[in-house]
Write a structure and sequence with these properties.
Chain lengths: 309, 254
């Protein structure tokens, strides 16, 4: 898989304060890449450098192998950008703004008409003819996504696309992002971890300008797994019998009683426990109603790595 | 093509928002008012005098007074309106954040500034030409000997001065973070031009004397050859403001 975004030693300092400190990025093509961090971590500064709006103090940026130079518009055909609070010309209608944005890329008129219809449909603004000035925040955000996609970019940068939205607006935007999956590389920053968790293939966590963690969601869940299994036996008798047996197993650290037929198993060796527990149920002729590996949430991981730092 | 699209949007915006309309209405108002004031002011004053029992004898007004009135009115109003309307051209895009959406498209920073500059000059030129045209028309209707070669040059001098004010306003708009700051800086430029224009020996070669030269051209006390140096200085100042603006804007982080 080729690399869509690559940065080497990216750094940005403002009057003695380092906002981004030696960021090395390798974002795979087609991925939805979550860029996390608490407020002031350097997310917006990084996005502005990646889009050529801010000059890095040092380091280099490449998008699909083409160097990004501050202030230059040369690589703009490859990118789309949605700022945290997108602002438009209030006197325009959404279709007028998209047409204007398309014309800035010199897109052929016929092709542009089709593209506008397609994007208005994608973001749920089809048939909306009122002026942007009367739009809600959510509608502006959706139009912001549409304008970022007008040139069919290979990479879309989104800065906190859902942070300012109500739950309905957030869901609408997240649904659009899911639909983009695989079609375009999406690099988006957020501090709403549950949203990132739902849609991202890979995440990077940044704190005080430095990378504290970068990996695929799958690898992170594995790495930060607590090794806890949620189990439910079919009868109270089975539960009592099995809890005793489980406590004696070497791969298990602790068994915690829960309501009804449920109990939690804290493992020492998760892989071994995943094999041995079902076998034990089978050997005792007990029914297994539930067997769920409790995975850490991104919030758990985030708190762990940011706190540890 | 992206530049054309941007320029088209800027011009369209001037007439979708009050900007272009404000300039047009104010300029036209003074274009109509100036000849009427010149023609009837003497009569009004004589009438007022009569009512007070005082006999006021004034020489009959001429087309020159009509143009003088126009230049006087337009000099101040043109400056104020130009600064207020165009001060936000770059600063407001920065403060509202629209600039970020535009400059992440295929539009260079130079094209962005030239789009602002050219559209502003076009809007100003159309409004000014309409006002000057109306003023000339009314002057022709009210005064039989209505034109001299000097009037056309005087009108062109004012147009040049307006273009300089636009270049300076856009320059300060590039430097500023808000429309208010840009407008204050624009008025400071206006004050500086007027102050430098009043300095003996130096002032007569600067844009500050264009207003005085316009009167003199209309009255035929100066000829076209007399305006050469201040015109060159004005053009140079305008080009310098645009060049400096472009260089600064290229380095601005957004």
């Amino acid at each position: 898989m080729s690399i869509a975004i690559e940065t080497i030693g990216l750094k940005k300092s403002y009057k003695g304060m380092t906002a981004v400190d030696g960021l090395d990025l390798n974002v795979p093509e087609g991925s939805i890449y979550g860029f996390l961090g608490p407020n002031g971590a350097g997310k917006t500064t990084t996005l502005k450098m990646l889009t050529g709006l801010t000059k890095p103090t040092s380091g280099s940026i490449r998008i699909y192998g083409r160097e990004v130079n501050f202030g230059s518009h040369r690589n703009r055909t490859d990118i789309g950008f949605l700022p945290d609070v997108p602002n438009f010309y209030n006197w325009m209608t959404p279709a007028e703004f998209l047409r204007f944005a398309g014309e800035l890329f010199s897109i052929d008129k016929k092709q542009l008409n089709g593209r506008i219809d397609e994007l208005m449909e994608l973001v749920g603004l089809s048939g909306v003819k009122k002026k942007i000035g009367s739009f809600s925040r959510g509608m502006k955000q959706r139009l912001g996504i549409a304008q970022a996609l007008i040139n069919q970019p290979r990479v879309v940068f989104m800065d906190e696309p859902v942070s300012a939205l109500d739950p309905i607006g957030r869901k609408e935007v997240m649904d659009i992002l899911v639909r983009l999956s695989g079609r375009v590389t999406v690099f988006f920053s957020s501090h709403i971890l549950s949203d990132i968790e739902k849609v991202c293939d890979r995440v990077l966590i940044m704190d005080k300008g430095k990378v504290v963690l970068e990996d695929s969601m799958e690898a992170l869940r594995k790495k930060y797994s607590n090794g806890v299994i949620d189990i439910e036996a079919d009868t109270p008798e089975s539960k009592a019998l099995l809890m005793d047996e489980l406590r004696r197993m070497s791969c298990i650290d602790k068994v915690q009683n829960m309501e009804d037929g449920e109990f939690k198993v804290f493992t020492r060796n998760l892989e071994k426990a995943q094999h041995e527990i079902p076998s034990l149920f089978a050997s005792k002729n007990a029914g297994l109603k539930k067997f769920i590996l409790l995975e850490p949430t991104l919030e758990d991981i985030f708190m762990k790595v940011v706190d540890a730092k | 093509m992206s530049f054309t699209a941007y320029l088209k949007k800027e011009i369209y915006e001037a007439y979708k928002t009050p900007k272009g309309i404000i300039i047009g209405i104010i300029f036209l108002f003074f274009g109509i008012l100036s000849p009427l004031t010149a023609k009837y002011m003497n009569d009004i004053l004589a009438l007022v005098g009569q009512q007070q029992g005082v006999s006021i004898q004034l020489p009959p007004s001429t087309y020159r007074q009509s143009y003088e009135q126009f230049f006087k009115n337009i000099y101040f109003m043109m400056t104020v309106v130009t600064i207020l309307v165009f001060a936000g051209s770059v600063a407001e895009e920065k403060s509202r954040g629209t600039i970020v959406l535009i400059l992440t498209k295929y539009l260079s920073r130079n094209a962005f500034i030239f789009g602002k500059l050219i559209s502003a000059i076009l809007i100003f030129t159309v409004s000014y030409a309409a006002a000057a045209g109306i003023c000339m028309l009314y002057t022709a209707l009210l005064f039989p000997d209505f034109i001299s070669n000097g009037v056309i040059w005087a009108l062109l001098l004012y147009w040049l001065y307006g273009c300089l004010m636009i270049a300076l306003t856009i320059f300060v708009s590039i430097l500023s973070k808000s429309m208010t700051a840009a407008a204050v800086a624009g008025f400071a430029c206006f004050a500086l031009i007027s102050a430098v224009g009043a300095i003996p020996f130096i002032g007569e070669y600067t844009p500050g004397v264009l207003q005085g030269l316009s009167y003199e051209l209309t009255n035929s006390t100066k000829t076209v050859s007399d305006i050469f140096v201040p015109v060159i200085v004005t053009l140079t100042a305008g080009i310098a403001a645009v060049t400096a603006g472009l260089l600064i804007f290229r380095k601005q982080e957004l």
